[in-house]
Design brief:
Blueprint: H1 3-29, H2 35-40, E1 42-43, E2 46-47, H3 48-87, H4 103-174, H5 180-207, H6 217-231, E3 235-240, H7 247-268, E4 272-280, E5 283-290, H8 297-301, H9 305-316, E6 320-325, E7 331-338, H10 341-351
Parallel strand pairs: 3-4
Antiparallel strand pairs: 1-2, 4-5, 5-7, 6-7
Protein backbone atom coordinates (compact mmCIF):
# COMPACT_ATOMS: atom_id res chain seq x y z
CA UNK A 1 0.00 0.00 0.00
CA UNK A 2 1.44 3.33 -1.04
CA UNK A 3 1.67 6.47 1.07
CA UNK A 4 -1.48 8.24 -0.26
CA UNK A 5 -3.69 5.14 0.02
CA UNK A 6 -2.53 4.67 3.57
CA UNK A 7 -3.31 8.31 4.38
CA UNK A 8 -6.82 8.09 2.84
CA UNK A 9 -7.56 4.93 4.80
CA UNK A 10 -6.43 6.62 8.03
CA UNK A 11 -8.70 9.63 7.35
CA UNK A 12 -11.76 7.42 6.67
CA UNK A 13 -11.09 5.40 9.82
CA UNK A 14 -10.71 8.62 11.82
CA UNK A 15 -14.05 9.99 10.54
CA UNK A 16 -15.89 6.75 11.31
CA UNK A 17 -14.32 6.56 14.75
CA UNK A 18 -15.25 10.14 15.57
CA UNK A 19 -18.79 9.58 14.31
CA UNK A 20 -19.17 6.48 16.44
CA UNK A 21 -17.83 8.28 19.48
CA UNK A 22 -20.24 11.19 19.01
CA UNK A 23 -23.24 8.90 18.54
CA UNK A 24 -22.37 6.78 21.56
CA UNK A 25 -21.74 9.88 23.67
CA UNK A 26 -25.03 11.51 22.65
CA UNK A 27 -27.03 8.36 23.22
CA UNK A 28 -25.44 7.89 26.63
CA UNK A 29 -26.19 11.48 27.58
CA UNK A 30 -29.76 11.53 26.23
CA UNK A 31 -31.06 7.97 26.36
CA UNK A 32 -34.27 7.37 24.37
CA UNK A 33 -36.48 4.33 23.98
CA UNK A 34 -36.94 4.69 20.26
CA UNK A 35 -34.38 5.30 17.43
CA UNK A 36 -36.83 7.55 15.64
CA UNK A 37 -36.47 10.11 18.38
CA UNK A 38 -32.79 10.50 17.62
CA UNK A 39 -33.50 10.84 13.94
CA UNK A 40 -36.13 13.49 14.45
CA UNK A 41 -34.18 15.34 17.17
CA UNK A 42 -32.40 18.59 16.26
CA UNK A 43 -29.19 19.99 17.71
CA UNK A 44 -28.41 23.65 17.12
CA UNK A 45 -31.25 23.68 14.60
CA UNK A 46 -29.57 20.88 12.71
CA UNK A 47 -30.92 17.37 12.33
CA UNK A 48 -29.12 14.88 14.49
CA UNK A 49 -27.59 13.03 11.54
CA UNK A 50 -26.39 16.26 9.92
CA UNK A 51 -24.96 17.48 13.21
CA UNK A 52 -23.04 14.23 13.74
CA UNK A 53 -21.70 14.33 10.18
CA UNK A 54 -20.62 17.99 10.45
CA UNK A 55 -19.03 17.44 13.88
CA UNK A 56 -17.19 14.38 12.64
CA UNK A 57 -15.87 16.20 9.58
CA UNK A 58 -14.74 19.24 11.60
CA UNK A 59 -13.04 17.09 14.20
CA UNK A 60 -11.39 14.99 11.51
CA UNK A 61 -10.34 18.16 9.69
CA UNK A 62 -8.76 19.58 12.85
CA UNK A 63 -6.80 16.42 13.65
CA UNK A 64 -5.99 15.99 9.98
CA UNK A 65 -4.46 19.48 9.86
CA UNK A 66 -2.53 18.79 13.03
CA UNK A 67 -1.29 15.48 11.61
CA UNK A 68 -0.45 17.15 8.30
CA UNK A 69 1.62 19.76 10.11
CA UNK A 70 3.69 17.01 11.72
CA UNK A 71 4.11 15.34 8.34
CA UNK A 72 5.15 18.66 6.76
CA UNK A 73 7.74 19.27 9.51
CA UNK A 74 9.17 15.80 8.88
CA UNK A 75 9.43 16.51 5.18
CA UNK A 76 11.22 19.81 5.92
CA UNK A 77 13.72 17.98 8.10
CA UNK A 78 14.41 15.53 5.30
CA UNK A 79 14.79 18.42 2.88
CA UNK A 80 17.32 20.13 5.17
CA UNK A 81 19.31 16.93 5.46
CA UNK A 82 19.30 16.61 1.68
CA UNK A 83 20.57 20.19 1.38
CA UNK A 84 23.41 19.35 3.76
CA UNK A 85 24.33 16.28 1.73
CA UNK A 86 24.21 18.20 -1.57
CA UNK A 87 26.37 21.00 -0.11
CA UNK A 88 28.89 18.45 1.19
CA UNK A 89 28.45 19.51 4.80
CA UNK A 90 28.45 17.27 7.82
CA UNK A 91 24.90 16.30 8.80
CA UNK A 92 24.16 17.35 12.37
CA UNK A 93 22.22 14.65 14.23
CA UNK A 94 18.70 15.82 15.11
CA UNK A 95 17.26 14.71 18.43
CA UNK A 96 13.70 15.19 17.13
CA UNK A 97 12.45 12.00 15.55
CA UNK A 98 10.41 11.83 12.36
CA UNK A 99 6.89 10.49 12.35
CA UNK A 100 6.27 6.76 12.03
CA UNK A 101 5.25 7.15 8.38
CA UNK A 102 8.79 8.23 7.57
CA UNK A 103 10.53 5.46 9.52
CA UNK A 104 11.62 3.63 6.37
CA UNK A 105 12.76 6.87 4.75
CA UNK A 106 14.68 7.72 7.91
CA UNK A 107 16.56 4.41 7.72
CA UNK A 108 17.38 5.03 4.05
CA UNK A 109 18.63 8.50 4.91
CA UNK A 110 20.89 7.13 7.63
CA UNK A 111 22.30 4.57 5.21
CA UNK A 112 22.86 7.29 2.60
CA UNK A 113 24.56 9.59 5.09
CA UNK A 114 26.81 6.75 6.29
CA UNK A 115 27.71 5.86 2.69
CA UNK A 116 28.54 9.50 1.87
CA UNK A 117 30.67 9.82 5.03
CA UNK A 118 32.57 6.63 4.16
CA UNK A 119 33.14 7.85 0.61
CA UNK A 120 34.48 11.15 1.94
CA UNK A 121 36.90 9.35 4.24
CA UNK A 122 38.01 7.09 1.40
CA UNK A 123 38.53 10.12 -0.88
CA UNK A 124 40.55 11.89 1.79
CA UNK A 125 42.72 8.80 2.29
CA UNK A 126 43.30 8.60 -1.44
CA UNK A 127 44.26 12.28 -1.60
CA UNK A 128 46.60 11.87 1.38
CA UNK A 129 48.22 8.76 -0.11
CA UNK A 130 48.56 10.50 -3.47
CA UNK A 131 50.18 13.53 -1.84
CA UNK A 132 52.56 11.35 0.17
CA UNK A 133 53.45 9.34 -2.93
CA UNK A 134 54.08 12.54 -4.89
CA UNK A 135 56.27 13.92 -2.12
CA UNK A 136 58.22 10.66 -1.93
CA UNK A 137 58.61 10.64 -5.71
CA UNK A 138 59.80 14.26 -5.72
CA UNK A 139 62.27 13.55 -2.91
CA UNK A 140 63.55 10.52 -4.79
CA UNK A 141 63.93 12.53 -8.01
CA UNK A 142 65.75 15.31 -6.15
CA UNK A 143 68.05 12.79 -4.48
CA UNK A 144 68.84 11.13 -7.82
CA UNK A 145 69.53 14.49 -9.45
CA UNK A 146 71.80 15.53 -6.58
CA UNK A 147 73.67 12.24 -6.93
CA UNK A 148 74.05 12.78 -10.68
CA UNK A 149 75.34 16.33 -10.26
CA UNK A 150 77.75 15.19 -7.54
CA UNK A 151 79.12 12.44 -9.78
CA UNK A 152 79.58 14.80 -12.71
CA UNK A 153 81.26 17.45 -10.56
CA UNK A 154 83.55 14.86 -9.00
CA UNK A 155 84.45 13.26 -12.32
CA UNK A 156 85.07 16.53 -14.18
CA UNK A 157 85.47 19.76 -12.24
CA UNK A 158 86.96 18.22 -9.10
CA UNK A 159 89.57 16.26 -11.02
CA UNK A 160 90.42 19.26 -13.20
CA UNK A 161 90.92 21.41 -10.12
CA UNK A 162 93.17 18.74 -8.64
CA UNK A 163 95.21 18.56 -11.88
CA UNK A 164 95.46 22.38 -12.02
CA UNK A 165 96.62 22.47 -8.40
CA UNK A 166 99.33 19.88 -9.08
CA UNK A 167 100.50 21.77 -12.19
CA UNK A 168 100.64 25.11 -10.35
CA UNK A 169 102.56 23.50 -7.49
CA UNK A 170 105.07 22.04 -9.96
CA UNK A 171 105.46 25.36 -11.78
CA UNK A 172 106.12 27.24 -8.56
CA UNK A 173 108.70 24.69 -7.42
CA UNK A 174 110.62 24.64 -10.73
CA UNK A 175 110.67 28.35 -11.48
CA UNK A 176 113.74 29.12 -9.46
CA UNK A 177 114.62 32.79 -9.19
CA UNK A 178 112.17 34.87 -11.15
CA UNK A 179 110.16 38.03 -10.99
CA UNK A 180 108.87 38.35 -7.39
CA UNK A 181 105.62 39.86 -8.64
CA UNK A 182 104.95 36.92 -10.94
CA UNK A 183 105.90 34.47 -8.19
CA UNK A 184 103.44 36.10 -5.81
CA UNK A 185 100.72 36.09 -8.43
CA UNK A 186 101.29 32.39 -9.22
CA UNK A 187 101.19 31.54 -5.53
CA UNK A 188 97.90 33.41 -5.25
CA UNK A 189 96.57 31.43 -8.20
CA UNK A 190 97.64 28.19 -6.52
CA UNK A 191 95.97 29.25 -3.29
CA UNK A 192 92.77 30.12 -5.17
CA UNK A 193 92.76 26.70 -6.82
CA UNK A 194 93.21 25.00 -3.45
CA UNK A 195 90.38 27.07 -1.99
CA UNK A 196 88.21 26.11 -4.97
CA UNK A 197 89.01 22.48 -4.21
CA UNK A 198 87.80 22.97 -0.65
CA UNK A 199 84.64 24.62 -1.94
CA UNK A 200 84.11 21.69 -4.28
CA UNK A 201 84.59 19.17 -1.46
CA UNK A 202 82.05 21.06 0.65
CA UNK A 203 79.63 21.23 -2.28
CA UNK A 204 79.95 17.50 -2.91
CA UNK A 205 79.34 16.88 0.79
CA UNK A 206 76.10 18.87 0.47
CA UNK A 207 74.97 17.26 -2.75
CA UNK A 208 75.88 13.70 -1.81
CA UNK A 209 76.02 13.35 1.98
CA UNK A 210 77.58 10.09 3.06
CA UNK A 211 74.92 7.91 4.77
CA UNK A 212 75.71 5.69 7.72
CA UNK A 213 74.32 2.64 5.91
CA UNK A 214 74.05 0.51 9.03
CA UNK A 215 77.30 1.73 10.57
CA UNK A 216 77.48 3.16 14.06
CA UNK A 217 78.03 6.88 14.55
CA UNK A 218 81.67 6.26 15.55
CA UNK A 219 82.31 4.23 12.41
CA UNK A 220 80.66 6.88 10.25
CA UNK A 221 82.71 9.72 11.79
CA UNK A 222 85.94 7.77 11.53
CA UNK A 223 85.34 6.92 7.89
CA UNK A 224 84.33 10.47 6.92
CA UNK A 225 87.26 12.17 8.63
CA UNK A 226 89.76 9.59 7.39
CA UNK A 227 88.62 10.25 3.83
CA UNK A 228 88.86 14.01 4.34
CA UNK A 229 92.42 13.79 5.64
CA UNK A 230 93.41 12.30 2.29
CA UNK A 231 91.64 14.91 0.19
CA UNK A 232 91.81 18.29 1.95
CA UNK A 233 94.83 20.26 3.23
CA UNK A 234 93.62 20.32 6.82
CA UNK A 235 95.10 18.94 10.01
CA UNK A 236 92.17 16.88 11.28
CA UNK A 237 92.11 15.39 14.77
CA UNK A 238 89.21 13.48 16.30
CA UNK A 239 88.18 11.48 19.34
CA UNK A 240 85.11 9.26 19.16
CA UNK A 241 83.52 6.68 21.42
CA UNK A 242 81.19 3.82 20.64
CA UNK A 243 77.93 5.08 22.15
CA UNK A 244 74.82 2.86 21.98
CA UNK A 245 71.92 5.03 20.76
CA UNK A 246 68.97 4.74 18.41
CA UNK A 247 69.39 5.12 14.66
CA UNK A 248 67.46 8.37 14.46
CA UNK A 249 69.78 10.10 16.91
CA UNK A 250 72.86 8.76 15.14
CA UNK A 251 71.62 9.96 11.76
CA UNK A 252 70.84 13.49 13.03
CA UNK A 253 74.21 13.84 14.75
CA UNK A 254 76.02 12.59 11.65
CA UNK A 255 74.16 15.11 9.47
CA UNK A 256 75.12 17.90 11.87
CA UNK A 257 78.78 16.85 11.57
CA UNK A 258 78.57 16.88 7.78
CA UNK A 259 76.92 20.31 7.74
CA UNK A 260 79.46 21.76 10.15
CA UNK A 261 82.47 20.35 8.26
CA UNK A 262 81.02 21.63 5.00
CA UNK A 263 80.75 25.13 6.47
CA UNK A 264 84.36 24.87 7.70
CA UNK A 265 85.64 23.86 4.28
CA UNK A 266 83.74 26.63 2.52
CA UNK A 267 84.13 29.59 4.82
CA UNK A 268 86.56 29.06 7.71
CA UNK A 269 89.94 29.10 5.89
CA UNK A 270 91.13 26.93 8.77
CA UNK A 271 94.31 24.89 9.09
CA UNK A 272 93.07 22.59 11.89
CA UNK A 273 89.80 20.81 12.57
CA UNK A 274 88.98 18.98 15.82
CA UNK A 275 86.01 16.64 16.31
CA UNK A 276 84.93 15.12 19.64
CA UNK A 277 82.05 12.71 20.20
CA UNK A 278 81.78 11.25 23.72
CA UNK A 279 79.23 10.27 26.38
CA UNK A 280 79.65 12.07 29.70
CA UNK A 281 77.34 12.49 32.72
CA UNK A 282 74.24 11.30 30.89
CA UNK A 283 74.85 13.43 27.78
CA UNK A 284 76.07 12.66 24.30
CA UNK A 285 78.49 15.50 23.56
CA UNK A 286 79.43 16.38 20.00
CA UNK A 287 81.99 19.16 19.67
CA UNK A 288 83.48 20.48 16.40
CA UNK A 289 86.03 23.31 16.41
CA UNK A 290 88.39 24.96 13.94
CA UNK A 291 91.00 27.73 14.00
CA UNK A 292 89.55 29.61 11.05
CA UNK A 293 88.48 33.18 10.49
CA UNK A 294 85.33 32.86 12.60
CA UNK A 295 82.18 34.98 12.23
CA UNK A 296 79.62 36.99 14.13
CA UNK A 297 77.07 34.41 15.31
CA UNK A 298 74.25 36.91 15.88
CA UNK A 299 74.57 38.41 12.41
CA UNK A 300 74.65 35.04 10.64
CA UNK A 301 72.09 33.16 12.75
CA UNK A 302 68.95 34.56 11.09
CA UNK A 303 70.05 34.24 7.48
CA UNK A 304 72.04 31.00 7.54
CA UNK A 305 70.12 27.97 6.35
CA UNK A 306 72.91 25.65 7.49
CA UNK A 307 72.87 26.92 11.08
CA UNK A 308 69.09 26.75 11.20
CA UNK A 309 69.10 23.22 9.83
CA UNK A 310 71.62 22.04 12.44
CA UNK A 311 69.63 23.69 15.22
CA UNK A 312 66.41 21.98 14.09
CA UNK A 313 68.12 18.59 13.93
CA UNK A 314 69.44 19.02 17.48
CA UNK A 315 66.00 20.01 18.78
CA UNK A 316 64.33 17.05 17.04
CA UNK A 317 66.42 14.59 19.07
CA UNK A 318 65.85 16.49 22.32
CA UNK A 319 69.23 18.22 22.42
CA UNK A 320 70.69 21.70 22.34
CA UNK A 321 73.12 23.32 19.96
CA UNK A 322 75.54 26.09 20.94
CA UNK A 323 77.91 27.93 18.63
CA UNK A 324 80.75 30.12 19.85
CA UNK A 325 82.66 32.12 17.27
CA UNK A 326 84.44 35.45 16.97
CA UNK A 327 86.01 37.04 13.91
CA UNK A 328 89.62 35.84 13.70
CA UNK A 329 89.22 33.45 16.68
CA UNK A 330 87.82 30.33 15.04
CA UNK A 331 84.52 28.55 15.63
CA UNK A 332 83.34 25.97 18.15
CA UNK A 333 80.05 24.07 17.79
CA UNK A 334 78.68 21.90 20.59
CA UNK A 335 75.64 19.63 20.64
CA UNK A 336 74.45 18.02 23.89
CA UNK A 337 71.78 15.34 23.86
CA UNK A 338 70.56 13.71 27.09
CA UNK A 339 71.04 9.94 27.10
CA UNK A 340 70.89 8.14 30.43
CA UNK A 341 72.01 4.61 31.25
CA UNK A 342 68.53 3.14 30.67
CA UNK A 343 68.23 4.85 27.30
CA UNK A 344 71.65 3.71 26.24
CA UNK A 345 70.92 0.15 27.35
CA UNK A 346 67.62 0.12 25.48
CA UNK A 347 69.32 1.44 22.35
CA UNK A 348 71.97 -1.24 22.69
CA UNK A 349 69.31 -3.96 22.89
CA UNK A 350 67.54 -2.54 19.81
CA UNK A 351 70.86 -2.52 18.00
CA UNK A 352 71.42 -6.18 18.81
Amino acid sequence: MNFFARQFKQIVIAILAITAILVVAFMSTFPQSNWEVYIEKSIFDLPFAVFVAVASLCTALFFGMLYGWFQWSSIKKLEERLDFLVAGKEVVPDEKKLTADFAVIEQKFQQLEQAVAEQKQAARRLVLEKTENQESLIEEMISQERQRLARELHDSVSQQLFAASMMMSAINENRGEANPTETKQLEMVEEMIQQSQLEMRALLLHLRPVPLNGKSLKEGIDGLLLELTQKVPLSIHWTTEEIPMDRGMEDHLFRIIQESISNTLRHAKASRLDVLNVWRDGFVILRISDDGVGFDVEMNKAGSYGLQNMHERAVEIGGTLKIISLPGKGTKLEVKVPLNDAGAGKAAEEGE
